[in-house]
Write a structure and sequence with these properties.
Elements (H helix, E strand, L loop, with lengths): L18 E2 L2 E7 L17 E5 L18 E9 L7 E6 L2 E2 L1 E6 L2 E7 L5 E4 L9 E9 L28 E2 L3 E6 L3 E2 L3 E5 L4 E5 L2 E2 L7 E8 L2 E9 L7 E5 L16 E8 L5 E9 L4 E4 L2 E4 L2 E2 L4 E4 L13 H13 L4 E4 L6 H5 L12
Parallel strand pairs: 25-26
Antiparallel strand pairs: 1-12, 2-3, 2-4, 4-10, 5-9, 5-12, 6-11, 7-8, 7-10, 13-16, 14-15, 15-19, 17-18, 17-20, 20-21, 22-23, 23-24
Length: 362
Amino acid sequence: MTVPRNEYPRPQFKRDRWMCLNGEWQFEIDNGDSGLQRGFLEQELKNRIMVPFCPESKLSGIGCKDFMEAVWYRRHINIPGDWREKILLHFQACDYDTTVWVNGHELGSHRGGFTPFCFEISKFIIPGDNVEIVVRARDYSRMHKAAGKQSLNKYNNQGCFYDRTTGIWQTVWLEPVPQCSFNRPRITPDPTGCCFNIQTPLRGIKNKGMHIKAKIFAKDKLISSASICADLQMTPELTLNIPETDMILWEPGAAFLYDVELELLDAGGNVVDRVSSYAGMRSVSLCGKDFLINGKRIFQRQVLDQGYYHDGIMTAPDEETLIKDIELSLAAGFNSARLHQKVFEERFLYHPKFRISATMFC
């Protein structure tokens, strides 16, 4: 069976090893929110759903348009035997109030339907063994919550309000992470200073002599590197200077991006953690009512992109559909987009790097 939406979900903070958990999961609708008392945590669930599509969608295989106060998911997976580090279970988005169990142990809860979250599962599993994941998503339809244009108070979609989205609607995945590792970096371009400033949050740093090495590439050519001690700082900052001959601005019609690589090394110079990212060299500012990129006035011809799909609702059916949305907007004469009513998946923002040469999506 082909795994839907099996692309790496977080391309601006990427590690080589990961496991996509999209595909068929056990599923049960729990309109009374009584599933915990009725044994849903321990028993097999009756139905099957195709993750990451919400149960209201056609692509999920469920297609239930009614109010669903709570839904449950269950899946068994095998953890690779060589995953001896911390293991993180990621959810790119689940609507709305999510609780997760692994092998019967409650990991925690997350509230909010649009933002990614994760839980560490290492202490509840043994590498090489089979693991059971159970998810309950409560989505009380008439509660006050951020919902975009979902039809919360009426059964049907109507006017500008479309079908509700309940439960998992973006990629679920596993990732092994070293005990000492990177959190997501913040990369800030400085065109005037011809450099990138990088903040690199860390976790689990206990050993002396550890340091960070950053590299930046332009068209596969190494153009700059820098290093810094990581012993005492939990958010070290580095500056990567860009040689004048390799200074390429990100501009409308020429959306050039640099590749960035970060390494965390121990006192012996061994790589403990490695992540890849990318960044564009540009400035964004306002001058009165004028919008400027790199000091140049840009008239924004913005399309209002709601990211709605007739068969997947808020979830694109495949990678090519995301790309087509951008291409159609450009072909219609737009140069930017207002991404509306949901937090768009990171893959949408990633595609201009490789597929689109003339875009100014904001």
